[in-house]
Structure formats: structure tokens, C-alpha cells
UniProtKB/TrEMBL annotation:
This is GTPase. It catalyses: GTP + H2O = GDP + phosphate + H(+). Residues 249-335 form the CobW C-terminal domain. SUPFAM superfamilies: Hypothetical protein YjiA, C-terminal domain (SSF90002), P-loop containing nucleoside triphosphate hydrolases (SSF52540).
Length: 337
């Protein structure tokens, strides 16, 4: 029997890792052997730490996006998981800027063809930001296309963060989602809470009924690592698979050298410029011993004590055109108590 693949997609900070945590918390023996494949843009593994303790194997693919720069590694990663664990299910969490169509393309590798079956694409939408992101990224064609494709190609839509969304905005978000995808079941959620059975019974929506697909844009410049296949293609003068989006999204990590002032750090996160789409990591505050996990999206800052003391004290920033030096300068002002 082939291994079932569930693809979890959605923009940066929409609630994908939260969904995975809920799913792992509800898994029972009958659900069989489950392996998680996580992909993060930067070199630092922030989300993987959040999944420790559930007792499931987690394969991490860092520093690139499986929809483009490290798509070749997706095939290798899946082959490795299949041979090491022979799982019944693989849950793939994509980066927030992955175009699901490109990931699906990566899943159709001939070596995987008869070994895996894509059961469905579950897309988590941050209802509190969806309209804003849609209009803000109008000028960035590739980014708006990705956000829309994450909805367009979903087989199940979780309209998340409804607790942060006014009813009139939520109604507009749902109208927009329906415009993009009239067929996928649409569920309103808070903290990505949904019955595991709903996810596992997701059904693929047949391709002809979808809106016209927009082809991937091939580009010359790539800041990400090229996959082995892309290197071969490039040496042969063929188009590589990297879509333009990954070129414009950057990420950098900052390693804390000591404890910071909690209040100043919170203000620093709230004051981050709009072109920082996401920040997350682990930090220690003056006068406290517990490690703090922090999460930032442009309308939300969350901090909570993190019991697992494994992670490094590090902050990861994801955005476009970020003034890295200024961000670091501002962050370093938080060391003073
Ligand atoms: N208020 C509120 N917060 C939420 C909800 N869902 C998730 N969050 C919080 O939003 C933050 C981002 O959630 P994640 O699950 O890490 O989002 P993600 O999509 O995995 O983020 P990336 O992997 O960085 O793209 C976390 O701090 C969550 O606790 C929700 O429905 N309401």
C-alpha cells in the first residue's frame, strides 16, 4: 500500500505548526506510523522544536524552500523517510512562502510515483491578515500568486485566527476564498483546532474543476541553493525550477549573546517594520530562568515559556528588503536592563 501524503500549506504565521501540534496530539495507534517532514526557510530550526515530545519522527529540511531551491531534496527526503520508517502517513509542512503547486510537482518524481499518494492539500489561512496581505502584495506578483495558489489548490481550507477577526472582515475573507476556490470545504478555526478525522478524510478536488493554473515563472537569479537536478539543468542551459518568489524573500538569524529585557524586546517585536513578515525564536529575559518562545506576525506578538531547554537562543527573521543592520541594532538595545 502506498504512503499517504498530507500537505499542510498556508502563509507565514497562519497556524500550520499549530495545526501539526494539534494533529500529533490527537493521533492514535489506528492512525498507523506517521512521520513529519518540515521545511523552514532559514538555517535555524524553530518549528521543529515545537514538535518535540510528541514521539513522532520529524525530518527537517532547512535553509531553502521545497517548492523551489531545494525541491530535489524533497524527493531524497521522502525516499529516506520511506526506506527508514515505511510510514502509513507523511505530514508535510511547507514554508509559508511555498507554492503548493510546485511542491505537488516535486511529489510526482518517477521514483516516488507508485510509493506515495497525495491525499490532500490542507491550507491554513490567517483570516485576520488575509485581505491585508492580498492587497499589500498586489505589486509583488509572485507573492500574491503564492498566497492565492495556497487557497486555489487547497482541498480543505481552514480559516484560522477567527478570534482575531471582526465578523464583517471574516465574511469578506470567506467571499474572497470562495472566489478563489469554490469547492474546498471551508472550516472556521481558532488555533487550528479541527478534528483529526476531518483532515485525514480530505479528498483531492479533481484538477479539471480548478481554475486555470498559472505556470511557474523560471528566473535567472537564485539566492537559494540549487537542487542537484537544477544544477544539472543549469549546466545544460535548461530552465531551473526556482520560481521568482524565493529570490525576493530573505531570511536571517541572530544569535543572542545574553539575556534581554522582556519589555524592551516585546516593544522591539511590535515595532518591527512591515517588510518583516515573520519573526520567531527563543530568548531568555533578565531575572528569569525559563526559556521564552516568541512568535511575531505583523499584527500579533506572542511569547510563552518553553519547557524544552534544547533550543538555542536565536531569532529568525523572514521578509523582503529587510534592513538587517538596523534590525540587529534595535534588537541589541534590548540587552540593557
Ligand atoms: N490568536 C490566535 N493565535 C494563533 C492562532 N493560530 C495560531 N496562532 C499563533 O500564531 C503564531 C504562529 O502560528 P504557527 O502555527 O507557528 O504558524 P505557521 O504557519 O506554522 O508559521 P510559519 O511556519 O512561520 O509559516 C503562534 O504563536 C500561534 O500560537 C489562532 O487561531 N488565534
Amino acid at each position: 500500500m502506498s504512503t499517504q501524503i498530507y500537505l499542510l500549506t498556508g502563509f507565514l504565521g497562519s497556524g500550520k505548526t499549530t495545526l501539526l501540534q494539534n494533529m500529533l496530539g490527537s493521533l492514535r495507534e489506528k492512525d498507523g506510523e506517521v512521520v513529519i517532514l518540515m521545511n523552514e526557510m532559514g538555517e535555524e530550526d524553530i518549528d521543529g522544536e515545537q514538535l518535540q515530545g510528541f514521539g513522532f519522527p520529524v525530518k527537517k529540511m532547512l535553509d531553502g524552500c521545497i517548492c523551489c531551491s531545494i525541491r530535489g531534496e524533497l524527493t531524497e527526503g521522502l525516499k529516506e523517510i520511506l526506506s527508514s520508517f515505511q510510514p502509513d502517513k507523511i505530514l508535510i509542512e511547507t514554508t509559508g512562502v511555498a507554492d503548493p503547486i510546485d511542491v505537488v510537482d516535486g511529489l510526482t518524481h518517477p521514483e516516488l510515483y507508485d510509493k506515495i499518494q497525495l491525499k490532500g492539500i490542507v491550507s491554513v489561512v490567517d483570516a485576520s491578515r488575509f485581505l491585508d496581505l492580498n492587497s499589500r502584495f498586489q505589486s509583488t506578483a509572485s507573492l500574491v500568486k503564492t498566497i492565492r495558489n495556497q487557497v486555489r489548490y487547497a482541498d480543505l481550507l481552514l480559516v484560522n485566527k477567527t478570534d482575531l477577526t471582526a465578523p464583517n472582515i471574516l465574511a469578506k475573507v470567506k467571499d474572497k476564498l470562495r472566489e478563489l476556490n469554490s469547492q474546498a470545504p471551508l472550516l472556521e478555526t481558532i488555533r487550528s483546532e479541527v478534528d483529526l478525522e476531518v483532515i485525514f478524510s480530505v479528498k483531492r478536488i479533481s484538477p479539471p474543476s480548478r481554475e486555470e493554473q498559472t505556470p511557474t515563472v523560471a528566473v535567472q537569479k537564485s539566492i537559494g541553493r540549487l537542487s542537484p537536478m537544477d544544477k544539472i539543468k543549469q549546466s545544460l542551459g535548461l530552465k531551473t525550477s526556482s520560481p521568482s518568489l524565493y529570490n525576493s524573500i530573505e531570511t536571517f538569524a541572530y544569535h543572542f549573546t545574553g539575556k534581554v529585557d522582556g519589555e524592551k524586546f516585546e516593544d522591539f517585536l511590535y515595532d518591527l517594520p512591515k517588510n518583516v513578515y515573520r519573526a520567531k525564536g527563543y530568548v531568555l529575559f533578565h531575572g528569569k530562568e525559563e526559556l521564552i518562545s516568541f512568535q511575531h506576525t505583523d499584527n500579533q506578538v506572542l511569547m510563552f515559556p518553553f519547557e524544552n531547554f534544547g533550543p538555542k537562543m536565536v531569532a529568525v527573521f523572514i521578509g523582503e528588503g529587510m534592513d538587517q543592520e538596523k534590525i540587529i541594532r534595535d534588537l541589541e538595545k534590548c540587552y540593557a536592563g
